[in-house]
Structures are given as structure tokens and as C-alpha cells.
Specification:
This protein has two helices and no strands.
Length: 60
């Protein structure tokens, strides 16, 4: 890949976007389906919103 800082492949233990998405998307999807199934979809969305807002302010 042109412009990549790695010679062959990323170093061991480096968390890249594809790996991060493979971990978070199935987890959030399963939690969302379970929340919808049990009727807690609104609190789930509120929790996700609060978590993302805190992450936004803490990473600045």
C-alpha cells in the first residue's frame, strides 16, 4: 500500500481500524439486539450517547 509506514505488515499488538471495528461492531450489534428484545432500547441509546460524549471530551 503506497504511503504506509510499515515495511510488510503492522507491528504486533497495534490496534488498527479494521481490528477495532471487528471487535466493536458485533458486540454493539448483539447488545443492541438484546436491548431491543428486552425493551431497553432507549436506555441503551442513552448509555451509548453518554459514553461517546464522555469519550469526545476526555480525548481532547
Amino acid at each position: 500500500m503506497p504511503g504506509t509506514p510499515y515495511l510488510e505488515e503492522p507491528p504486533k499488538g497495534l490496534l488498527t481500524w479494521p481490528k477495532l471495528l471487528q471487535m466493536t461492531v458485533p458486540t454493539l450489534l448483539a447488545l443492541g439486539i438484546a436491548s431491543w428484545w428486552t425493551g431497553y432500547l432507549l436506555p441503551f441509546f442513552i448509555l451509548i450517547t453518554i459514553t461517546l460524549t464522555l469519550t469526545l471530551f476526555l480525548r481532547r
